[in-house]
Amino acid sequence: MVIINITGCKQSLKQKIIAQYEHCKISDTCSILINNLTSFEWDKMYVFGSYANDEIISSTVNFIYTGKPITPGFRRILFTWGRKKIYEEDYQLRSYRNSVIDFKNINDSILKIRSYSFTQEDAFFMIAKEKIPGSCSSCFLYLLIHLENN
To answer: What are the distances in angstroms from CA 89 to CA 2, 5, 13, 86, 135?
Structure first.
């Protein structure tokens, strides 16, 4: 298992996750601790589906949240520190023209709106790379599978 700190200015979390996988793909497993990919302090990371609005996000993070609506077909990763928004990034679930990331076992629908949260210590994931059927030759899904960080 390889864990590397990848930092760089103006590189999205998605780009850092993909770069991490490509760097360690020669080993049997590629694991990341999200905290090693961030350059800011945070205590919680949330993942919200496209049906989550400001009211749902506010009730989850326990402070008044305001943000642009999440585009259908996207999810939002939100990092907080206490009762403050630190960083957020929306990512597309599927694309036939670009590589994408997603978290395994995170499901959302209009009938079942919920968030998923991780602390710095348990935001530990294995990355699996899968081809997106019907997509460009260099388009992949980088699937983050939650691991227990012992």
So the answer is: 25, 19, 8, 11, 23
